[in-house]
User: What shape does this take?
Amino acid sequence: MALSQTAQELELADPSLARYNRQMLWEPIGIAGQKKLRAAHVLMVGCGALGTVLANTLARAGVGTLTIVDRDFIELNNLQRQVLFDEQDIADQLPKAEAAKRKIAAINSSVRVEAVVADVNHTNIEQLAAGKHLLLDGTDNFETRFLINDTSIKTGIPWIYGACISAMGLGMVIRPGITPCLRCIFETAPPPGMNPTCDTAGVLGPTVNLVASWQAMEAIKLLTENIATLSPFMFSFDMWDNRYQQLNVAKARDIADCPACKHGNLEYLSGKFGGSTTTLCGRNAVQISQPAGSRIDFEQVAKNLAAVGKPTFNKFMLKCPIREGHGENKKDFEITLFSDGRAIIKGTNDAATAKAIYARYVGS
Amino acid sequence: MAIKVRIPTPLRSLTNGVDMLEAAGADVQSVLTEVCARFSGMEKRLFKEPGELNRFVNIYVNDEDIRFLENLKTPVKDGDDLSIVPAIAGG
Assistant: This one.
């Protein structure tokens, strides 16, 4: 084994990597590992709390190409924990993926970022995953996680699960065919409404940072091919209670009767499970997806909506508050419409109500 | 026998915020039966039907998944640590 190189030697060896010398001094990475990071292309599914920490960390670490997919826009209550966003992004009504791309360009201009403002669903995830070395979970719902899991099994691309609420978090590295998959651990999602959400139970910034930092570290190990050091456990913690566990899940792949990785029933990817509406975690909002290929003419929609509200729009999205009923029966909603026809209906957790609002004001 | 049972955040609304309690029992089933008896609504959150856990909740004894031990019949002893780990969606 070669003797370790000094920081100066590392810089001389490849000046384009000079900014990473503190990272390359860590021998398991070195110049060879840094070049592997530069050659890597990662799909980041979701760019909210976990996603912004992941994108920030991996861009600074020098991962060469990031495809960031997010369906959402930025709200004031995101800023407490979503580290790539600021008040100006809200004023500019930027989608999260686009705002993240702009921030990363300022942080590390050598990283290529593809911002995709879209809902990840069974119609588009395989195309999004194609050619990527790793899929990263920055989502806030079970449906998309199971979809990532199915895609990973079908394509052989590894993914890293992460989730959190309040001060509690979970994480796991999933390498299809080698480790248990997510459905080996949790075969089903809880029924809607059963578990508290980040909105009802809250979530603390350090919780998000810990989960995403753990995911990012595993991502760096994986992308630099330090495979033996990957965590074989499910990482579980509650920071408030000072409790950190490594749960033994190694046997799950052999013993669990997994519908996905053992029986090959990719029920989320096939569209059998998961629908065109998704209740958003703790947001009092429902997302309505449209089949791939839909396009929206914001000007026309804004004209239509002018009769019922005061729509505003830019090239990324249209927003319009809608008030239905009056007096004690009045209900306030807000439609956010994206160019692919997808909408987030704020003001309800009920899919049918959201669909009705969409049909009434957008048309479907 | 006193078994330490860790209650995760998503279930603490059922326990008035209690995050850890001690329960008695010779196996996981008997410990969980005591927990469910103590807190209204807990049984529905843990069990699909009597003797069958929901598939979105896992139980670990000293960090080992009971599915790979003896499931609900996994014996427990004084001082063991039983963790309830539900699937969580936030992020």
The first helix of chain B runs from residue 28 to 38. The CA atoms of residues 23 and 34 of chain B lie 7 Å apart.
